[in-house]
Protein 1
Amino acid sequence: MCDEPTIESVSVRYDMSETILLPLRNYRPWAEAVAGAAAAVESSDVTALLLYVFDEEERASTRANIDDDGSMTVDDLAARKSGIVAAREILQDAGVSVEVRGREQVETTADSILTVSDEADVDRLYLYGRKRSPTGKAVFGSTLQRVLLNATVPVTVVPSNVTG
């Protein structure tokens, strides 16, 4: 029986880029896996941009849950999401500088990721690849697939069987 792969098995280190983008969801295990992969291969010279894309409903519920009167920016709201908090901790413990960016979704999540990637002039993207059936991908689409096909920078996909 094989052990689950872990981030520690990665042996490549990148020292050439300055900014990496980690689009994250509010599910800690996924965020920890992506942040762990980036922390394992990136040098401490990079800046990690942690992105959280809000749809209107989630932004409103986040504001309500933290009792915000509307004065917090979308970046402030993103910084409060548990996935962002977990990823920030992992990356900062590895000596990586971290910035948090929230974005209100006005297009698809994939388009939001690609837009931020271009606007921030990132060098690489790190995404979590959750398991989905081929039918699920065809019916619901795939953010991962759209980003992979349209990104102008290298994309690292952290498979769903990797733990942070």
Protein 2
Amino acid sequence: MSFKDNKEYGKIRVKDITLSPATLKDAFIMSRLYLRAFEHDPNRAIPFPRCVGMSGETYIRAAQMNKAKDLSMDIVSTDIVLKAMVQFENEDRKLLEALAGFAHWTSPDGPRKRTIWEWILSTIVFPICNFFSPIGDTPAETKRQIKELFQNQLNATFGPGGKAYNRRYWHLRTICVDPDWQGFGIGNKLLKWSFDKAAESDSVVYLETSPMGLNFYLAKGFQITTSLPAIEINGIHFSAPGMIWMPTLPQEK
């Protein structure tokens, strides 16, 4: 891999990216990293955040549940937090290491049944709300995005995505990468970890995102399965789509 620019270290070349359980010692760096990621790209750097302080709260709770030890990756654990450590060298060929990203999951839960209210939100309220919420830079772009959201919602409700909703799932609550370390495949590696775990445990990966981050996760193989109550981004109200990824989509009958 060729050298790339990094604001803190100058020209660097990544040698390896490793994932390992986070500990309380990482809390300060992870909190700072989360804030930097949120400020840099609040709509795509992380699956939809409820608030800026969410990461610290869930991280500390997870650490306390595990008695301040390494957060277990056992399937019976409730909360799992992995950090992404990057080993790299600078132009002087000095080998260095940095914590560049992390992700927080709740381990497999379910299966669950879709409630009548969720069905109404997914099938009726979510598509209609988007007709009254300008989400594109131009009227044409808004129309295109509304059409995509409406079609995806119908496909997810009555197609494979709707069937996947009743599977056990890994809830991906937070995934973020330091802005200075984006473009090195760190986020993809964290996401792939949950894909591999889902395949091992015959479950799916669930997350909530914003409409602006929707296409990113659709490109990763996620499908919309539900929508959440309205939220606000930059003064505009949206319904936040819930999305599911699964190793093998169920076949239509």
Protein 3
Amino acid sequence: MPQTTDANTFLELVAPVRDSLYRFSLRNVWQQDQAGDVLQEAVMTAWRNFSQFEQGTNFKAWMFKILLNTLYRLNRKSHRAKAASIDAGALDAGGYIEKEDAWTSILMEPERVKEALDDRIVQALESLADMERYCFLLRLLEDFSYREISEQLEIPLGTVMSHVYRARMKLRERLTEMAMETGIIK
């Protein structure tokens, strides 16, 4: 356990990355109410191992590595079903929005459309393999470089690039399918 004088340093380092860690946790847990628990476990693990952190190195990357390991362990343990049912009528009772009515519907009920799309994006992200999802989210949403992701996940740079590319292609395909199923596009 680190010394108590390290507590202030640790808290100062955690504070600026906490929101980013929470968002990443939220996107990678199967039950949304577990995101805080996962983050808390990762922070406690980081605190227990803070003496191993090399001052002057990238604390955010170090924390993400711990969070990724925590998520990976918990996701592997949970063995939950990845398939979620898709409510084909979520956007419109008729099953699709006619092109001429689309703008009116979107403008009049943006929250309903947003909620339906958000659910579908989450479902599409959940359909990715864990490593594809981690690489994709770290690269595109958390702005890590390919090299940083490679170092933190301890996988080759080319593998990271492949995971991000495959994730993009799978998401494009899955979201297109979902849009066609709901009639957003014909």
Protein 4
Amino acid sequence: MNCIELSQQADQIASTFSKQDLAKLVLALKDSPRSLQCAVEVIDTLDSRSGCTLDEAWDEVLAGDSQLQVANEE
């Protein structure tokens, strides 16, 4: 992805979510060792599910991570 495409994608994300939601996402990433991939999954979840809150999206992504870790441990 080149700089122009990245900038366009950032503009699209910024226009889709409120500043408050984006700030919560940044703070959640800062306070946990979660990867950028988790943030992308949260954004995808929010984008695909109408009415889904940021907290619900995080819970869903984190629950999916937990299930993957349990499956890998078995």
